[in-house]
Design a protein that fits this description.
Layout (H helix, E strand, L loop, with lengths): L2 H16 L4 H19 L6 H19 L3 H16 L4 H23 L19 E4 L2 E4 L10 H4 L1 H18 L3
Antiparallel strand pairs: 1-2
Helix pairs in contact: 1-2, 2-3
């Protein structure tokens, strides 16, 4: 576990406690804090799909807590109503009204802009590895080729360890599950 990330999140919660932040800010801090912990605190990366599932559960849990009593609902809605009705927040409200759909559209665009490619091989229960792959327009033959990073093991061990660590993170994030 990455202790530094845990300490930063704990310090942020401690600061909110000292400043006696309102419930809406606490809810947002919990959501962001749990996301940061799931995404960055574990040495073995958690796949993005699992993080999405957990964050969905966290979102539902926080909403259930915020709406569990009349007092909590009023405490959460008070700053939101003030934000939407007071004249001094008009420009910020307009920017928010534009930014939220723009961010949603940008997310859809990024997700839809991924090129569709057929699988390298027919799907089977235990598919064989492809014989070659293309990375950054460089074709690498896996079965007959040499590992381009293997020479770094003796010439530059620190750089080699960085590549091995990056490969481990990519494998744990995308392949192990």
């Amino acid at each position: 576990m990455n202790i530094l990330v845990v300490l930063v999140v704990a310090a942020a919660f401690g600061l909110l406690r000292l400043r006696r932040a309102n419930l809406l800010l606490w809810a947002g801090a919990w959501w962001v804090g749990i996301y940061v912990l799931l995404r960055f605190a574990f040495t073995t990366p958690i796949p993005a799909s699992v993080v999405s599932i957990y964050m969905g559960i966290v979102s539902i849990t926080i909403l259930a807590y915020l709406s569990s009593s009349q007092e909590r609902r009023e405490e959460v809605s008070r700053p939101l109503v003030r934000f939407m009705t007071e004249k001094r927040y008009t420009a910020l409200l307009g920017a928010t009204a534009v930014a939220i759909p723009a961010l949603a559209a940008a997310n859809v665009y990024v997700q839809m802009n991924v090129p569709l490619e057929p699988p390298f091989f027919p799907r089977t229960i235990h598919p064989a590895s492809p014989s070659e792959i293309t990375v950054h327009d460089n074709r690498i033959e896996i079965d007959a080729g040499d590992n381009p990073f293997r020479q770094l093991e003796t010439s530059n061990p620190e750089e080699f360890r960085k590549h091995v660590e990056n490969g481990r993170q990519v494998y744990y994030r995308n392949c192990v599950f």
